[in-house]
Amino acid sequence: MNKFALAYIALLVAVLVVSSGCITTKESIKLQQQVDDIKANMGLLKAESAQQLRDEVKSVRESQADLLERVGRVEGRVSELIGRVDEAQFQAKEVQKNTSTLSSDIGKRIENLEKALESLRGELKGISEALDQIKEKKALKDEAARKAPDDLYNEAYSAYKAGRYEEARDLFEKVLSKNPDGKYTPAAHYWRGESFFQLKSYQEAIAEFGEVIQKFPKSEKAPGAYLRTGTAFMELGDKEKAKLFFDEVIAKFPKSEQARVAKKKLQSLK
After folding, report:
1. What integer is the mean pLDDT of 235-260?
2. Which of 113, 119, 205, 246 is the most buried (most CB within 10 A)?
3. Is 184 part of any domain?
4. What CATH number does the domain containing 250 carry?
5. 3-state SS string over the chain?
6. Do the Cβ atoms of 246 and 266 come closer than 8 Å?
7. Is residue 87's pLDDT more than 80?
8. How far is Cα of residue 217 from the mean position of the Cα atoms in its chain?
9. Highest mean pLDDT: which range of 15-19, 84-88, 161-165
10. Model pTM score
11. Distance (Å, rounded) from C-alpha 91 to C-alpha 248?
12. Per the domain annotation, does 250 fall within a domain?
């Protein structure tokens, strides 16, 4: 029981006593003073109780506000976590989609690499075969280099007569490199020129015939070199230069078989 209730009971008792008429006037005055004191105390108690109630209400309100604030923070945190979960789910889907695309792309790249590898194998096979041919030709050249000049020249000439013009061309070059001032040098230049001519390499043929004309003008191959130079120019469509060389054959070697052939060729150019 609080102070306010006790004061209220005391006041009630005093009123009852006064109203019963069992007390004297002096006692009545004293009792009235007590009643007034009790009323005053009751007023103080009411004020104190009201203030205490207001404080308690304030405290409750503050507690509620703090609780609401905490709830708000929790709700914000929950919203943030939900957002992160949504983002994580989105990223997971993107990763899954990218992984699928990447797997498809890797498959295509592997397929392309396999095709490229197969093509490379074919190229390597071709290169290997070409290397084998080069080795074979080198072996032939090395063998030819070990032979005596007469044997090497005869082999080159045999290759020409057999229609193996590329082989003859290379063998005559070997004769010239091994014996640049040998007895077969004019003939080697001439027949190398003939090999180029048969291969339709007319400019190269003219160059070889020119070696005979310039360096060996009195050799037995000189008339043929003039004649075949003119013929090469005919094949190139240069009739004027062809006529010059045919005229040279006739002027320098008038009684030769090459001069007779040159006259016929000049007739055909008119």
Report:
1. 96
2. 246
3. yes
4. 1.25.40.10
5. CCHHHHHHHHHHHHHHHHHHCCCCHHHHHHHHHHHHHHHHHHHHHHHHHHHHHHHHHHHHHHHHHHHHHHHHHHHHHHHHHHHHHHHHHHHHHHHHHHHHHHHHHHHHHHHHHHHHHHHHHHHHHHHHHHHHHHHHHHHHHHHHHHCCHHHHHHHHHHHHHCCCHHHHHHHHHHHHHHCCCCCCHHHHHHHHHHHHHHCCCHHHHHHHHHHHHHHCCCCCCHHHHHHHHHHHHHHCCCHHHHHHHHHHHHHHCCCCHHHHHHHHHHHHHC
6. yes
7. yes
8. 63
9. 161-165
10. 0.47
11. 92
12. yes
In a domain, 196, yes or no: yes
* Domain around 233: 147-269
Is the model more confident about 4 or about 86?
Answer: 86
Provide the CB-side half-sphere exposure for 197 (13 A, CA). Answer: 23
Token pair, residue 68, equals 């609401």
Domain count, the chain: 1
Spatial neighbors of 7 by CB under 8 A, at least 6 apart, are: 38, 41, 42, 45
| Res. 4: pLDDT tops 70 | no
Mean pLDDT of 106-110: 81
- Note whether residue 230 is domain-resident: yes
212: Cβ–Cβ under 8 A, 6 or more apart, which residues?
186, 189, 190, 193, 219, 221, 222, 225
What is the Cβ-side half-sphere exposure of residue 96, based on CA atoms within 13 angstroms? Answer: 6
